[in-house]
Give the backbone structure.
Amino acid sequence: MQVGSKKSLFNMIPQPSPEATAAAWASTYFNVYSLMDAFGGKSLLVEQQVSGTISRWVDWNDAMGISCSGGKITILYALKSAISRLCPASIRHGLPNNLIILCSEGAHYCVEHVASMIGIGSTNCWRLKSDNEGKTTVESLKLALETALNKGKQIAAIICCGGTTINFNCEDTVTISTIVDQFIVHNKLNYRPYLHLDSVIGWLFFSLMNQHEDQLKTKINNDTIANKFQIVLKRLQGLAKFDSFGVDFHKNGLCPYSSSFFIGKDRRFMDELGDGNYQYSEQDFQYGNLCAYRYTLENSRPSHGILSSWVNLKSKGRLGMGEYLISLYQSRFNLEKKCKQ
Ligand SMILES: *Cc1c(COP(=O)(O)O)cnc(C)c1O
């Protein structure tokens, strides 16, 4: 395939920006090692700068993140954090046998695999029925919550779609979190199921959040697209009630493979993803003390994803990222128009 061919359109394989590619190569050339900040240069700091930049777009001001190799790993981090939060004893002693996960019908096919790898088991992942707009129906969510309660199951997490590859299934996060919270109050549940938004594709919409409707319309300059954006942005408004989300820079952040981020609303994941023998404190954030390997899946860890995503965020800015997203929809719109002619 010709690099950058305007005729190439297949799944999520865009051409990375030259700047991001150079950054990835530079980090490889200098062999930056992001196991811990004592030998990682500032890679661990930049990792948090990338995480902080995106999370501030959605007003998550205490968020932290982990650079990882793919969206699948962001789901793994979410599920592991969820289990540890629900059953802290599981960190040292293993899983109870009544855990389940709920996810949207149109969620990525890797959710079951991750559930299996993590020890919950793929059949304990319950898919919820969606309507024809790709949103989980209120009835199916309520039914699943009640069934779980009646069967003595504990819902470790709910994995919600924040935009998917083929149909861009995107949950109404306000509805999901409201139903969950009402269910907790009504049934006096002593825990809150962990809410993760699988936004590895939809995250780019975060760059356009909290903008005035008219401002957005002017920027987009196409009513069909502007209306679509408004619907998606409205559905993402409930993110404030979520615990984590995922970002794939290699999908639509113009970075080479693979450069993903798991973003947690606060730093609790650092302990939740550990083995139970260490607790992070302020001391760990003194330069030279931070060790990522206690919470990351990898031990030796590359930093190309950290540097390339940072370079794109810096060179394009929030505005540039938003404009890129709009241009993707404009291309799609034009293509669709041409096909219909
Ligand atoms: C691509 C994708 C994943 C898996 O991400 P990888 O980066 O391929 O590991 C998970 N969820 C959604 C919605 C995706 O589009």
Q: What stands out?
A: The longest strand covers residues 154-161. The two ends are 27 Å apart (CA to CA).
